Amino acid sequence: MQLFKELQSHVQYQLEGNVEQDRQLILDDLIATIKQHLTENNVVAINFVCTHNSRRSQFSQFWATVMASYFDVKNIVCFSSGVEVTALHSNVVNTLQSLGVESEKSGVENPIYVLKYANKAAPLKMFSKLLEDETNPQKDFIAVMTCAEADEGCPFVPGAIARIPLRYEDPKQFDNTDEVEKAYKATSQIIANEMKYVFSRI
After folding, report:
1. 3-state DSSP assignment of residue 48
2. CB–CB of 69/121 below 8 Å?
């Protein structure tokens, strides 16, 4: 699928899709799991889990969705969730907007962001939510643990058919510093590159 022009250029030319060998082992496990369940089921649901569902899990949901579209991998639906409800951090949205993503916001305390990345794709409705939120699948999904806290604190994920640890560093530590924009862009880039690695191989 053709993404918005600036986003398409970023995915095509700024992301190599190459990752370090230790990360490849984890990502190859995710690839194999997705392939297996695509064969067995009509639709594969992937839920990216982090403690607050505010940064890393949201980046992961977005980039997995975009890469599935970019590589025309059908029957993949991506979600994100946490063990606490906070809010999708505005720095995440600002980072994606800088890459050409269109955004609309409603609400204040835990705002809902509608993110559009391609003319022919359904927009993503993103906000902070619990694993058991009604908008998330309750069974037969792949749980991808994107932070150490959630990975260590949730050794068992109810309803998951597979559980894969894929930890990322938290850009939160750079909030309210001069490095904040750079840090969020770096996190976004790392996650996007790894999702490109995954979906280019399915």
Report:
1. strand
2. yes
Domains and CATH numbers, the chain: 5-199 (3.40.50.2300)
Q: How far apart are CA 149 and CA 50, in angstroms?
A: 7
Task: State the DSSP code for 80.
Answer: E
pLDDT band at 97 (very low <50, low <70, confident <90, very high): very high
> Phi-psi bin for 134: left (phi > 0), alpha (psi -120 to 50), beta?
alpha
For the cut 80, the answer to whether the pLDDT of residue 41 exceeds it is: no
The token duo for 126 is: 């993103």
38 burial level (CB within 10 Å; 0-12, 13-18, 19+): middle
137 vs 122: CA distance, rounded Å: 18
Q: Is the pTM of this model over 0.85?
A: yes
- Residue 158 clears pLDDT 80, i.e. is over it: yes
Residue 115: strand pairing partners: 103, 124
Q: Give dist(CA 115, CA 145) in Å, integer.
A: 23
Locate all alpha helices (DSSP H) within the chain, ordered by sequence.
5-9, 21-40, 56-70, 90-97, 148-153, 180-199
| Closest to 157 (Cα-Cα) out of 171, 177, 143 | 143
Identify whether the C-beta of residue 118 lies closer than 8 Å to the C-beta of residue 70: no
pLDDT band at 154 (very low <50, low <70, confident <90, very high): confident
